[in-house]
Amino acid sequence: MPADSRFCLPAFIEEAYNQDMEMIVRNVKDIDGGDRRSLEHVVGRQLSDSQQVIIRVVELAPAPDQATKRRALDDLAQLSEKGSQHREAQGVTEAEASEALDEAIRETRRQQRQQAG
Fold it and tell me: When you count CB atoms within 10 A of the terminal residue's CB, does the N or C end of the chain come out lower?
């Protein structure tokens, strides 16, 4: 999978994520004219007989209430502040920390692609 392709989920999350999905697979050549035109409208381009259409239907989790969102935002702000304090105490600049984080993300994605490939 190329580096710029879809976001990679860790295997244990992807398994749970896919577990609650209903997947519908249809060969384009088997879809009648009206339905095919509707699908082409949805995907924004013509489909060819050599393709398949795959649709996943999922149940959405209820949206968190405002209090839950606020607590999560507060927790994130506290974590960020602790990280900044630790970074500063170690004499690491914000730019260095940002580059280290970017490098860690790239390496994690590379490892995930290797495991998937």
Answer: C
Answer yes or no: is pLDDT of 13 > 70.
Answer: no
- Rounded CA separation 83/78 (Å): 9
Torsion angles phi and psi, residue 95, rounded to 5: -65, -40
Q: With contact defined as beta carbons under 8 Å apart, do 59 and 19 qualify? A: no
Q: Per DSSP, which regions of the chain are E strands?
A: 21-27, 52-58
The pLDDT tens digits of the residues spanning 65-77 come to: 999 999 999 999 9
Question: For residue 26, which of 3, 48, 55, 53 has the smallest C-alpha distance?
Answer: 53
Confidence of residue 10 (pLDDT cuts 50, 70, 90): low
Q: What is the pLDDT of residue 6?
A: 47
